[in-house]
Specification:
alpha/beta, 22 strands, 6-stranded mixed β-sheet
Amino acid sequence: MTYRVLISDPLSEEGIKPLREAENIEIVKNPGWDETELLENIDQFDALLVRSQTQVTRPLLEKAARLKIVGRAGVGVDNIDLDAATENGIIVVNAPNGNTNSAAEHTVAMIMSLSRNIPQAFHALKQKQWDRKRFVGVELKQKTLGVVGLGRIGAEVAKRAKGQRMNVIAYDPFLTDEKAEQMGIKRGTLEEVLQAGDFITVHTPLLKETRHLINAEAFELMKDGVQIVNCARGGIIDEDALYDAIVSGKVAGAALDVFEQEPFTEHKLLTLPEVVATPHLGASTVEAQEIVAVDVSHDVIRFLEGKAVRHPVNLPSIPSEAMHQIEPYFYLAEKLGTFIIDLANEVISEIRISYSGDLSEIESGPVTRNAVKGILKRYLGSRVNDVNALYLADRKGITVSESKRSARKGFTNLITIEVIGASGSRKVSGTLLNGLGPRLVRVDDYQVDATPEGHMVVIQHIDQPGVIGRMGSAFAEHNINIATMQVDRSDVGGNAIMLLTIDRHLEDKALAEIALLDEIKSVTAIDL
């Protein structure tokens, strides 16, 4: 199968080289398409690569019948409707590491520009003004840099500030005293960072909680003459409040690379000589643009090859070591989900998934999504995938829960799925066995041992002599060959189960005739 990849924003040729070299991938570059052209053509593509120019909107995603993945060659995904992508089963990936160095260097350049008035002095010189006194600056040595958000970029900025012999105090909800000590910096609350900083730089994502995090109240906490830097996301700083703080003299200067509305050319902040501004250049280096394009290209290739992506945005990111552990269980979980929903054969209201043994100690979220995907495919078909399985379950009013037990129950690893409907509950369990792969080991309270694949039949019956023989004859009458048979019973003469694998699908007519035999309580055909 050939996959078609649309690149709708300018990306470097070196960056998309992995896509060029991949088999079964056709690239279409159309960075000039407007919104109408995108809408008219998007249903022809399996993958979409963008930077910040293309707006990946809900109407576009809902029109994209073939689209499986959107790759953002950069960190921010503000131009992508993540909710719509998730609802339509489209995974979004980005390149969170590619521009770390570039953004950190730009932040330091902005701090230096502020401290020494470099842009203002150059502008004056261009105007034929030689005015050394007006542009006297300050040294960074022994000044305190307050870092709000110590992720990848914030941490790199802190390292570089230490190289300038600055004192660094940082706030981050995940920063520990031990980590701060290792970095040679001080950990503080947000208030403490705002109060201590001679320079304050923000490096948080733009969330509901961080929008206008630096507002009029925050400026009141700061030192007089503080200098502000934002090379992260527009909107973290309240721009009107910043303007007022500069005019009042509370803030001595600000360096801004990002803004609430971009392009940013008309705001009153740009009228202030204390403001240094650049047009969102944090990631605009040759190296960064190449790296982010390479990173996202590799993730698109991995996804189209059926492998786990490294940087999902609308799925929880799983470390590669953990993914290596759990990936073998994806197939088993999906097959168990398909099996149990066919067995239940009714609308369900709840899915309970339990993990035992070694599985109780690993990240099980992706395994759960595969199990739910297997269940919902019987309702909703191929539109269900790892991305939207839990969302669609919630939309259908189905509760999904997980539990973990360290007890092994006879197996080093065990997945049990229980579904609950109006008629009660049904359960199925499976495991991975060394050398044998996925195995179905329990149906309700009966023990079995079968490979969960192909055509299967579950027969519930009364434990009586001759039942197995009559079953064999009945299947023979319909020219259906039995490949394997598993039988278990609750007690002698009581309820029993027969699990068959057969060579072809059991037609409804044959199923109905077999169900009429004496001792038979139910017959369920399951196609895996």
